[in-house]
Every structure is written in structure tokens, then in C-alpha cells.
Design goal:
Order of helices and strands of chain B: EHEHEHEHEEHHEHEH
Number of strands of chain A: 6
Oligomer: heterodimer
Structural class of chain A: alpha+beta
Helix content of chain A: 25-40%
Strand order of the largest sheet of chain A: 2-1-6
Largest sheet of chain B: 7 strands, parallel
Helix content of chain B: 25-40%
Number of helices of chain B: 8
Strand order of the largest sheet of chain B: 4-3-5-2-6-7-8
Radius of gyration of chain B: 17 Å
Order of helices and strands of chain A: HEHEEEEE
Radius of gyration of chain A: 18 Å
Number of helices of chain A: 2
Distance between the termini of chain A: 32 Å
Shape of chain A: elongated
Strand content of chain B: 15-25%
Structural class of chain B: alpha/beta
Number of strands of chain B: 8
Amino acid sequence: MHELSITKSMLDLVLDQAQKNGAEKVQGINLVIGEMSGVVDDCVRFYFDFLSKGTIAEGAHISVKIVPAQARCRKCGKQFKLNGLDWLCPSCGTTQINIVEGKELYLESIEVP
Amino acid sequence: MKIKILKDILSANDQRAKENRELLDRNDILAINFTASPGAGKTSLILETINRLKADIKIGVVEGDVSSTLDAEIVAKEGVPVVQINTGGTCHLDATMVASAFDNLPLEEIELLLIENVGNLICPAAFALGEDLNVLISSVPEGDDKPHKYPVMFSKAHLVVLNKIDLLPYVLFDLPAFTEAVKGLNSRVEIFEVSCKTGQGIERWISWLSSRLNKRPSTS
């Protein structure tokens, strides 16, 4: 459900940036979403379709780059991909990890004519 | 033509949260954001806190719920100022909602602001409110796997309160596994085992909170 608020924030940011760049139409929106941000890209597209109606971003194509969740072991420094409930460091077997990638949620770029 | 932006989608909320924080700082208020699953004991811990501290500290409360004023009514009986935010379907509080609650609270009279977020362990993690501290309440009947299922929330908590500890003998809950998972994700966080029903462990929570209150600029 928080995709609605997030999509609204994203649209506001897109429209603001388009205006600052003097664009009259937004054709494409490129997002970066981390696997652990809890944001479902299909929901964003669904909400975007109706939130963007009547704006210069209506009909824009949304492409999403998903960043996989990565952790770094605090003991041995090994960086590894988090996999479901299996969070043990593959190198030394500890649970002492920091999440280093996968929480991203940002607007990478917009495409204008 | 591609225009690089590289801006956080929630930057507008983050900016409003920063403004909330500045307003709280100007009024010398310590603000706590309580997050938890529904039914973990957010309102119970807030009521315990009010009961133990209201004689010494001026407390204000913001209650966030999708609907109803039940929590605000219970808190209001304690004689502290409270504002209920109904999010109308939204699964979290955001900085703008909290800012609107400030308009209805006597901020100049408040020293400790307790903000009860909507019961949800996913969405509130993304929305800063301007709080000083995030307190995550987990509870024994929910099971010990919650840190694995909601890692972002656990990794940003300043304190984890494990409520309903009195139910430990009756429920499958591996306390060492829970502790290891939480500490694995968040090495600095402390875990307080409490029961809002029996009062067990509440004293430790109150002294932790009191020490944070004493660190505010006006008192240090």
C-alpha cells in the first residue's frame, strides 16, 4: 500500500525536475529500486497510470533497475548476496552482517523529447 | 534526451522530516517513533510510559491508525495531550501527517513526544518523521523469525523492546535465535525483555528513556 505514497512522491519529483529542465513532456522514467526497499515495481506502474493522468508525464514508460540485496560480513569482510532466510556469511558462517545494498529508492533519470 | 536526476524518491518526505526535527529541537522535545506489528503492544507500552513518567515529565502523544480513535481515547484518559491521525488506508505515518498533528499539540509544554506509528513492519521504515529515536516493539507470540522477515525495520531501530515475555513458557519462541538475528543485523541495538501485563522489565525501559531525556540540550 505504501507504493501509492511512493508513486505520488516519485511523480512530484519527476514533474518538478521536468519543469526545472524546461521539458514539456516526459516520455520515460528510470528508477532504481533496491530489493529490500519493500517497493513492488508493478504496483508503482499501476498507481502511476492513474496518478499521472492529465500531467506531462502521462503515458511515460517506467523502467526499473532492481538492486539485489547484498550484505557484508562484519567479521571477515566478505560481501555476498542475501538469499531468503539464509543470512549466514558463506565464508565464515557468522550472522554478523551489514546490509550494504538493496535499500535504494531513487529517480535515476527522465527521458524527454 | 536523457536527463540525469539521481534524487531520492522520498526526498520531499525527508525534507519535511528535517523541518519537524528542527521544530522539535527548538522546543527541546525528545520524540520517539514506536513501530511494531499490529497487537505487539505499542499502545500498552505508551500507557505504561505515561503512567510511570507523567508526574515528572510533560508528555504528548501522536496516535497513528488507519481508522478509529480508540487509542487516542485510551491515552486521553491519562490526562496527556494526544492527537489521533487517521491515515485513511495509508499503511504508515509520514512527515506531513506528523507536522499537521503538531498544529494541535502544545509543543512548548511538551518534553517527551511519543508517536505511535501504524502497526506494520514494512512501510513505516521508509518514512522518516523527524523523530530522535526509533523503538521497535516485537512480541513473543509473533515468533522469533521477525528480524529475518523485516530486516530493514530491525536494522534501523535504536532499541528493540520484546514484549509479552511472560508468554515465553507457552509459545514456541527461540530467544537466543531472536537475539542473534537482531544483533546480527544491528550490532549496537539493545533488546529489552518486558511484559506490559506483569510489569516485568518496564523499569529498565523507563531508565533507558530517562537517560535519553537527560541528554537533551536544556538538561545537559
